[in-house]
Write a structure and sequence with these properties.
Number of helices of chain A: 14
Largest sheet of chain B: 6 strands, mixed
Largest interface: A-B, 21 and 24 residues
Structural class of chain A: mainly alpha
Order of helices and strands of chain B: EEEHEEHEHHHEHEHEEHEHEEHEH
Distance between the termini of chain B: 27 Å
Oligomer: heterodimer
Number of strands of chain B: 14
Shape of chain A: globular
CATH architecture of one domain in chain B: 3-Layer(aba) Sandwich
Order of helices and strands of chain A: HHHHHHHHHHHHHH
Strand content of chain B: 25-35%
Radius of gyration of chain A: 20 Å
CATH superfamily of one domain in chain B: P-loop containing nucleotide triphosphate hydrolases
Helix content of chain B: 25-40%
Largest sheet of chain A: none
Shape of chain B: elongated
Structural class of chain B: alpha/beta
Number of domains of chain A: 1
């Protein structure tokens, strides 16, 4: 992992100066701002089991599908198309260092977007003031949910990076990432909604399905339940995707 | 230059390199070497396998079989070690459009293990050497002309003072002034770095290179110093004779000087007849031909020996069957 720090600093700087990042950030804040606004309006009309912040976090899949592919699509596809990736690999920097640097920089940007999202409940609390602020926002649920976003984000970003490694077209990389992330999220969601327990012939699926409940993981994190299994799932999935990405970069000719 | 290390016999070694795409061999059984400090021209028609060979040597592409080493380090077994001794500028010289020249070179210097305290000094030095310091240092690479982009690529190659520099068509798309500048720059590397340079501009290669390696259809067809190749591939000595004499008289005079002489007619020059007289490689008549013709009563306006350039050597080498070239 020689040169990792040099590459990471370069990637973070490039991301900060890139119009693509700012556009993705604008889209993210517009989406989450809009969702939070409607959650606040909804909460003001009738009592709800979830606070507006929890209700907003429940829509984490929307920016995941619409914004994250915009961040990951250019990481490798664009560099492969222009040839700058091959030029980078003529230096002693390893493919693993390049992949990890790009991965970590996108993950930092993704987490930064979500940290920026915390401004919405803060602003809402400040504007409404007093007891209303306490009813509209549960800090524990907010930070628990953000921890889920950060941990699951490792896998989600790694999937996007892998998709960008296998093509020279940024648009195709974004589409692949969208489909892959949709499959990961929807699989978890679908398994949560299906009455697997009542289907005898699907009994074998019960155990693995319990590990793939994405929204269940979000709920656990928001409720402050510390379970190592989802962390291991996202961690190993991340390592697998990044390992494949390194192989894809090393094998590019 | 890095600290003193034992100097290998060859800075670059390609030994029976082969690269196959299915049944198609892009490079086959290719062997050559470049000595330390030597400038070698790597020539071949389009699609001959030059860029493929350079990419294998630079470690950006794996060969199917054979051995490639840079400064004694195997490219396949220790790619990072080989890359530390080598810089490679690909044919299309891909550069990030959104970085400024100085930023880009600073990043590359760090990635190429230039000592932290020397990064700024080295960047300034190569920018001055490549005439970038005053006019392009602060400009975005995406806004540079083709000539300046090529200079940035060469500056990048020289940054870490590598033992070996591999340049794939470094002067492509440049104007004559720019070509002259790049040629002088490459010439200044003689004795300091081993340079392997591919180019389609043969006079340029001839002026800069100590040795040439010529490949065709992925195989070696010739290698050596241009003068040696000239003797090997174009051994005959030929003269252009402009005279009032007719072909019969001239042929008789030439056969009198050397019975193996071959006379052929050339297009007339200003109303004078012109002929090409070819003599065997070691014919003593080559030194006395003018005198022999005058003695035979031939009225001469002009007699001159043909000088074969690298272009002639290249054409002769690429005409012969691939694989006939000499091994190092």
């Amino acid at each position: 992992m020689r040169h990792f720090r040099t590459l990471l600093a370069h990637e973070l700087r490039s991301a900060a100066l890139s119009g693509n990042t700012w556009a993705a950030g604008g889209l993210f804040l517009a989406l989450m701002g809009g969702i939070h606004f409607f959650a606040l309006v909804d909460a003001s009309r009738a009592p709800n089991a979830r606070t507006p912040v929890e209700a907003t976090l429940w829509f984490f899949w929307l920016p995941l599908l619409c914004v994250l592919p915009l961040l990951t699509m250019r990481t490798f596809a664009e560099e492969r198309r222009s040839g700058t990736l091959a030029a980078l690999l003529t230096t002693p920097a390893s493919a693993a260092a390049v992949v990890w640097a790009k991965f970590l920089s996108v993950w930092v940007v993704w987490v930064t977007f979500w940290l920026a999202f915390t401004l919405f409940p803060l602003i809402a609390g400040h504007r409404l003031g007093g007891a209303a602020a306490g009813l509209l926002s549960d800090p524990a649920a907010l930070w628990g949910g953000l921890c889920f976003i950060a941990v699951s984000g490792l896998l989600h970003v790694a999937v996007g990076i892998l998709c960008s490694c296998v093509t020279r077209s940024a648009a195709l990389a974004a589409l692949l990432a969208f489909i892959s992330l949709l499959a990961i999220t929807a699989a978890g969601g679908a398994l949560e909604t299906l009455p697997i327990e009542s289907w005898e012939w699907l009994g074998w699926l019960r155990e693995p399905a319990a590990h793939l409940r994405t929204f269940g993981h979000l709920q656990d994190f928001a409720d402050g339940i510390l379970d190592s299994r989802p962390v291991i799932l996202y961690g190993t999935g991340t390592l697998l995707c990044l390992g494949l990405a390194v192989l894809a970069v090393e094998g590019q000719e | 230059m890095p600290a003193a290390e034992p100097m290998p016999e060859a800075a670059v070694v390609a030994e029976r390199l082969t690269k196959r795409y299915g049944s198609l061999a892009a490079v086959e059984d290719l062997s050559f070497s470049v000595a330390p400090g030597e400038i070698v021209g790597f020539l071949g028609p389009n699609g001959a396998g030059k860029s493929t060979t350079m990419r294998i040597l630079s470690g950006t592409m794996a060969g199917t079989s054979g051995r490639a080493s840079i400064w004694g380090v195997s490219v396949a077994l220790d790619p990072a070690g080989a890359k530390r001794h080598m810089a490679y500028m690909p044919e299309n010289n891909p550069l990030p459009e959104d970085l400024r020249v100085e930023e880009y070179l600073t990043l590359r210097a760090r990635l190429k293990d230039v000592a932290a305290g020397r990064v700024s000094e080295r960047v300034q030095r190569v920018m001055e050497d490549c005439d970038l310091a005053r006019r392009a240092a602060g400009r975005l690479i995406g806004q540079l002309s083709k000539g300046f982009r090529q200079r940035v690529g060469i500056a990048d190659a020289l940054l870490a003072e590598p033992r070996v520099v591999i340049l794939d068509e470094p002067t492509i798309g440049l104007d004559p002034h720019q070509i002259l500048g790049i040629r002088e720059l490459i010439r200044s590397l003689r004795g300091k770095m081993a340079v392997l340079i591919s180019s389609h501009i043969l006079p340029e290669v001839e002026q800069v290179c100590d040795k040439v390696v010529i490949i065709n259809r992925g195989r070696l067809v010739a290698q050596g110093r241009p003068a040696d190749l000239r003797r090997e591939l174009l051994p005959e000595r030929a003269f252009t004779v402009v005279t009032r004499a007719d072909e019969t008289a001239l042929r008789a005079a030439c056969l009198g000087a050397d019975p193996a002489a071959v006379v052929s007619a050339l297009p007339a020059v200003d109303g004078w007849s012109a002929f090409r007289v070819a003599l065997p490689p070691d014919s003593p008549a080559a030194e006395t031909l003018a005198g022999a013709l005058v003695s035979a009563g031939i009225v001469l306006r002009e007699i001159s020996e043909e000088r074969y350039g690298l272009e002639d050597i290249f054409l002769a080498a690429t005409r012969r069957a691939p694989g006939e070239g000499r091994r190092p």
